[in-house]
Specification:
Strand order of the largest sheet: 3-2-4-1-5-6-7
GO cellular component, one term: cytoplasm
Family: Belongs to the SIMIBI class G3E GTPase family. ZNG1 subfamily.
Oligomer: single chain
Helix content: 25-40%
GO molecular function: hydrolase activity; nucleotide binding
Strand content: 15-25%
Number of helices: 12
Order of helices and strands: EHEHEHEHEHHEHEHHEHEEEEHHE
Distance between the termini: 41 Å
Keywords: Chaperone, Hydrolase, Nucleotide-binding
Organism: Gordonia rhizosphera NBRC 16068
CATH superfamily of the largest domain: P-loop containing nucleotide triphosphate hydrolases
Bound molecules: guanosine-5'-triphosphate
Number of domains: 2
């Protein structure tokens, strides 16, 4: 019997909006759907892949470059090909784009693939409602990402009051009047919204009042911000760069907390897996900072080496300073009974 093509759903959204959180939620809750995952991270170290490792039915990781440009469509086709082989028995594939990917280029890449075993299943766009207003000012192209979404997840509702949320929702609806939007904390979305929704007509086919992708691409091609690859010069990742840090020695919690709280100039996003050698605190610590908001989760090590990997992303970063400050935050054995409290104050449930 020939299988229906497997939907490929793209999850995009700016740095730190909650894409990995959404993905992990889907993997935990979409019990009837076997999900394959393709994670793209901007840095050389793919923290996102580490954070979902072992949970997906199949995971392929593409690092060191933004999927929409640096990774070519042959690479994506090969990666998806590994997920759709019959033995993997996967029902749906989610591509988690890097936080600075250009969704249009990514959609175009997926819709352009010739593999009959897959089909484009729509764009889910995650918005950090706590930061979206500033973000739209800093990066007006975000509006164009919202315009082409098929489902908009208004995440981090806990960070804003009801009136602010209503205002943001009205703005989003003005930008995209047809895609449903869902307000969430910790990206708790009903998986059916993504996977059943992928049976509906996604925006490769026209919905009333919405531009088709072809319309959008054509509109885009008419602008002078288009390069010879036929996609916009104004990719977010033109401005962003990342610095990676890895060590197999434990970190000093107090000094790491100081780094997370007062990161180097230009830094917007920090994420990492961290090991401390403090009695009672030797679990795996997953540290995040998004625009100055720090969060830490703790999990058991799952047999992997107990090492530290941290990625720092920003615009105009001084990478030498990042490396220097993180190297100075490696545990040098100085006794500090209470330093760990500087980290535990940020711990949330996994
Ligand atoms: N306050 C709050 N924090 C959240 C919420 N959802 C996710 N976070 C936190 O936001 C941080 C970033 O979440 P991720 O899911 O890693 O974001 P991402 O979009 O995958 O990040 P990048 O891949 O770096 O672009 C983490 O610390 C999450 O725990 C939420 O609803 N409220």
């Amino acid at each position: 019997m020939t299988r229906a093509p497997i939907p490929v759903v793209i999850v995009a959204g700016f740095l730190g909006s909650g894409k990995t959180t959404l993905l992990n939620h889907l993997l935990r809750t979409a019990s009837g759907t076997r999900i394959g995952v393709l994670v793209n991270d901007f840095g050389a170290v793919n923290i996102d892949a580490m954070l979902i490792a072992g949970q997906a039915d199949g995971t392929v990781s593409l690092s060191n470059g933004c999927i929409c440009c640096s990774v070519d469509s042959d690479g994506v086709q090969a990666a998806l090909g590994r997920l759709v082989r019959p033995a993997a028995r996967i029902d749906a594939i989610v591509i988690e784009a890097s936080g600075i990917a250009e969704p249009r280029a990514l959609i175009r890449m997926v819709t352009g693939l010739t593999d009959p075993r897959i089909r484009y299943g729509g764009l889910v766009y995650v918005v950090d409602v706590g930061g979206i207003e500033n973000l739209r000012v800093r990066h007006p192209e975000i509006d164009r990402h919202i315009e082409i979404a098929d489902l908009i997840v208004l995440n981090k509702a806990d960070l804003v009051d009801v009136d602010t949320l209503a205002g943001i929702r009205a703005t989003i609806e003005r930008l995209n009047g047809t895609a449903p939007s869902v307000v969430t904390c910790d990206a708790v979305v009903d998986p059916e919204m993504l996977f059943d929704a992928s049976d509906r007509a996604v925006s490769t086919t026209p919905r009333s009042g919405q531009l088709t992708l072809d319309d959008l691409f054509a509109a885009c091609a008419g602008r002078d911000d288009v390069d010879h690859h036929d996609h916009p010069h104004t990719h977010l990742h033109d401005d962003y760069e990342s610095a990676d840090f890895e060590t197999d020695r434990p970190m000093n919690p107090r000094r790491l907390a100081a780094f997370l709280e007062r990161p180097p100039a230009g830094c917007y996003r920090i994420k990492g897996v961290v090991a401390f050698d403090v009695p009672g605190h030797r679990q795996k610590h997953i540290v995040h900072s998004v625009g100055g908001f720090v969060r830490v989760q703790r999990r058991a090590w799952a047999g992997e080496p107990r090492t530290t990997s941290i990625v720092v992303i920003g615009a105009g970063l001084d990478r030498a300073e990042v490396t220097e400050r993180l190297a100075a935050a490696v545990d040098d054995g100085t006794p500090d009974d209470h330093g760990i409290l500087r980290i535990t104050r940020y711990v949330t449930a996994p």
